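INTERNAL TRANSFER SHEET
From: sequence group
To: structure group
Subject: Nucleotide-diphospho-sugar transferase domain-containing protein

Please process the attached sequence and return the structure record in the designated field. Keep the field labels unchanged so the import script can parse them.
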Amino acid sequence: MICRRSHVFAFTVVFGGCLLYVVFCLELMGNHRKLNDIDGLNLRSRLTVPRPAAGVSASLAGHAVIPSSNNSWSANSACTQADIERRSATVVLTTTNAGFLDVTENMLESIKRTRACPNITVIAEDEPSYQRLTQRIQSQPGLHVQRTPIGVTVSKSLKLHSRKYNRLVRRRPRYILDLLKKGYDVLFVDSDTFWFKDPFKDFQESFDIAMHNDDVNITIFCAGFAYYRPTENTLRFVTEWLRLLDKEKQPKTGDQSTMNKLISRKLIPKLKIKTLNETNYPDGRKYFLQAGWREAHSDTTVLHLTFIFGHDAKVAKLKEFGFWLI
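Return from structure group:
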């Protein structure tokens, strides 16, 4: 990964039962909002909130090197229905398969501990990840998990830039576009991100898309942490992005390369892109590998483990710095 979405109340009335009990249950069920069908994704427009579970922290302040055994951020999540609904027009979107499932759960736990309380949709690209992640719904308010509508993929971590990897990541613009067409703001995040703070304060200005730049010398935007507004410019951009990907018969590259070509050619001339501050949104190279960078920058909002290659290396870094939460 380079830069890289039910709960159902069931009740049984045995024989005659009590009429008042039946009326109460019917009223309770009627209060639950229906799901909006988003081109096969069945995304909830306003997610109902299960009872919060213990063991969730309020904030991840102070994120210098923390011993792996010290998960001192632990505290109860206080996300309420009102917290979830205040961002009902925004969806945090990610995808995963069983090969990156543990990294995905670690990211979800980091989001949970910030108390950002977003609506989160995870597209499970295989059945094992779907089954596992649906178990988190009761303990993570706002979380929704969906099977991929495109077709399941392999259940293992994939080699970067391999054909199977490229096929997998090239699905992401289609998921994003489905939500944008319904009028949602979409924050797409790769599963190898770690949240220290609520990032939504940085998405208040006027822009179409907000991303961070992967290179200090040239503009190479990262598709793995990007905020999309459902503007005309954004819809045109993602539609063209998807068209160019579909045009290629063989997936020689991932979605990011095509995205950056589209940006550099300025085919959507009025597209307004906000570049996220690298101090708040560093990549793995800066945070872990650049001498002195981490000590000089203590205001990280979201860390993206790009340039830490492979599942095992990412997990090792997260554990080494005390960011392994599951």
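Handover comment: DSSP finds eleven helices and nine strands in the chain. The mean pLDDT is 78.
Transfer complete.
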